[in-house]
Amino acid sequence: LTRQALPNLPNSSIENTEKGAYAVIDCDSPELILIGTGSEVSLCWDAAKAMSGKKVRVVSMPCWELFRAQPASYKDALLPKGVPKL
């Protein structure tokens, strides 16, 4: 919960939040992954949109503990090895 006025971002749902992390902006073979854990997700969204021509995935990670409990296949698909993450 936040007192800030934040946008409602795509893919935000109870089901996705229960996974601990999910893609807000997704793309095949991303060149960069921006990860936010709270109100900064909307800033990641803005940064990704400003990087036109780049394949950028934005991930919301509200609960790393829930994310760590997910199957390796889900974690590897969302945060593939070899892709820079910020």
Description:
With 86 residues, the protein is an alpha+beta fold. 30% of the residues lie in helices and 16% in strands. The chain has four helices and three strands, in the order αββαβαα. It has helices at 14-17, 41-50, 64-68, 72-78, and strands at 22-25, 32-36, 56-60. A three-stranded mixed β-sheet has the order 1-3-2, with helices on one face. β2 (32-36), α2 (41-50) and β3 form a beta-alpha-beta unit. The protein is globular, with a radius of gyration of 12 Å. The two termini are 23 Å apart.
Could you give a quick summary of the protein structure above?
This protein is α+β, with helices and mostly antiparallel strands. It has helices at residues 14-17, 41-50, 64-68, 72-78; strands at residues 22-25, 32-36, 56-60.
